[in-house]
Design goal:
It contains 13 helices and five strands. It has helices at residues 23-36, 48-51, 58-74, 92-101, 106-110, 113-119, 128-142, 156-172, 220-228, 248-261, 265-272, 277-303, 306-335; strands at 11-15, 42-46, 82-86, 148-150, 183-185. The structure holds adenosine monophosphate (AMP) and tryptophan.
């Protein structure tokens, strides 16, 4: 059981280097990472091995990785406090993923809703890697004996699978305290940022409409325009959070407002209750620009020096390997390989 795990607390999380990052990634992940680094040891991974579960252009992949690294730094993650590296530079991930392939059950993977959503009717044509994606994710976390995993709500099921794998490994090999059962850190504002065009769908990189999301690279003008065009309804700003339940588009914007302004949804409503959506959206756009413009600026400055980003990633990769390699060496011994 997790409470019998004696090792140190360690935060682990990952972000895919596919497509531009958006406000959901910032509020649901990056902003939380920057806060956590002050309280716990943190390892943040740019998961390029996960990225190739769907086709990626080899000419763009390294740049996409640098883009995420720059976003981490611009969001306040400090490479002196936290390790920020790319997955493919540390061999422990692929090795442990294979061992976990032999622990995870096909029935467990068949239940994963993200694969079903991504594959749709074409599951026969998807890569085996896309199906196996959650096993690699478990290997990511457990190669570091990660105990806490900050993610958005969409990753809850993958985290449950990680715990199932850790528990089965510990049980099957008779090492009850070896792997921790990693806990998701999901709660709090920004755990599920919704699309600007449809309050029942989450903001996503893969939404065909760019107007549905605010990208971290959008200019102030573009941000203001997207918020002005965001879907609301014909009413006015409600007075209580209870009323938001039946108004998903409005609820989505109020949640974004609260998360950006670091206030509660009730406080957002107190400030705007009974008002028209025009002024509400103007206030939201102002806050969004205030928060995001400095981040976009910093990101661009980091991206202007790709060699420095590469040096940071390489150093961090070495640090990450120093933690993960001995853990995977222990796994080899536990499994019983000759020479381990
Ligand atoms: P991804 O871009 O899918 O690799 O996600 C990177 C991180 O951002 C993960 O922790 C996700 O759970 C989180 N995330 C992605 N979309 C959203 C969203 N709309 N709201 C909150 N968190 C999100
Ligand atoms: N699957 C995660 C996502 O799409 C990314 C990820 C890969 C991850 N490995 C991880 C998140 C390990 C947390 C821990 O968002």
């Amino acid at each position: 059981m997790s409470d019998t795990y004696q090792g140190p607390n360690r935060v682990f999380s990952g972000v895919q280097p596919t497509g531009a990052l958006h406000l959901g990634n910032y509020l649901g992940a990056l902003k939380k990472f920057a806060i956590l680094q002050h309280d716990m040891e943190c390892v943040f991974c740019i998961v390029d091995l996960h990225a190739i579960t769907t086709p990626q252009d080899p000419k763009l992949l390294a740049d996409q990785t640098r883009h995420i690294a720059a976003a981490f730094l611009a969001s306040g993650v400090d490479p002196k406090k936290a390790i920020v590296y790319n997955q493919s530079s540390v061999r422990a991930h692929t090795e442990l993923a294979w061992y976990f392939n032999c622990v995870a059950r096909i029935g467990w993977l068949n239940r994963m809703t993200q694969f079903k959503d991504k594959a749709g009717k074409n599951s026969e044509k998807m890569s085996v890697g896309l199906y196996d994606y959650p096993v690699l994710q478990a290997a990511d976390i457990l190669a570091f004996k990660g105990t806490h995993v900050p993610v958005g709500e969409d990753q809850k099921q993958h985290l449950e699978l990680s715990r199932d794998i850790a528990q089965k490994f510990n049980h099957d090999y008779g090492v009850p305290h070896f792997f921790p059962l990693p806990k998701p850190l999901i709660k709090g504002p920004g755990a599920k940022v919704m699309s600007l065009r449809d309050g029942t769908k989450k903001m996503s990189k893969s939404d065909p409409s760019d107007a549905s999301r605010i990208n971290l690279t959008d200019s102030a003008d573009v941000i203001a325009k997207k918020i002005r065009k965001a879907k609301t309804d014909s009413g006015t700003v409600p007075e209580t959070t209870k009323e938001l339940e039946a108004r998903p588009d409005v609820a989505g914007l109020v949640a974004i407002y609260a998360a950006l302004a670091n206030i509660s949804e009730a406080d957002v409503l107190t400030q705007h209750a009974g008002g028209q959506f025009g002024p509400f959206k103007q206030a939201l756009a102002d806050i969004a620009v205030d928060v995001l413009a400095p981040i976009t600026d910093l990101m661009n400055r980091y991206l202007a020096d790709p060699d420095e980003l590469d040096r940071m990633l390489s150093r961090a990769g070495d640090q990450a390997a120093q933690i993960a390699d001995p853990i995977v060496a222990d796994v080899r011994r536990i499994i019983g390989f000759r020479g381990a």
